[in-house]
Amino acid sequence: MSDTIRIDKWLWAARFFKTRGLAKKAIEGGKVHYNGGRVKTSKVVELGALIKVPQGWDTLEVEVTGLSGQRRGAAEARALYRETSASQARREREAQNRRLANQSMQGPHGRPDKKQRRAIQDFQRHGFDD
Question: What residues does the RNA-binding S4 domain cover (predicted)?
């Protein structure tokens, strides 16, 4: 454990990003917020701070519970932060909305037959004139 850890190093050690370079790029791009505002790469992380971090489709809001500058196992990395209950509820709600949206979209049912293929090719050549 160390007393002062830069935010890019903490995000890397907490396994939010695969490399420090990716963490730095996200911070400089304004994707990471520290206590509600944009942050610079050299910001020193403090216990109890709220950090918003993008993770795939979601944005996690975590409270810093530990400081470490070394990247270790996932279990130890999870001990460095605690996700807020509001963030968990928002992530679950958005995941449910994505699931529902994906269910409503129907993919194609097999390959088009000869008549459908000719209609597609005609549409591509001439547009929608009929």
Answer: 5-70
Q: What is the pLDDT of residues 90-106, one digit of tens each?
A: 999 999 999 988 887 77
Q: Where are the alpha helices (DSSP H) in the chain?
A: 7-13, 20-28, 74-78, 85-104, 114-126
| Amino acid, res. 74 | A
Q: How many CB atoms lie within 10 A of CB 29?
A: 10
The tokens 């994707």 sit on which residue? Answer: 31
CA distance 27 to 7: 9
Per DSSP bridges, beta strands 50-55 and 33-34 are antiparallel
User: What whole-number distance in Å separates Cα of residue 101 and Cα of residue 105?
Assistant: 7
What is the pTM assigned to this prediction? 0.75
**44 touches 58 (CB < 8 A):** no
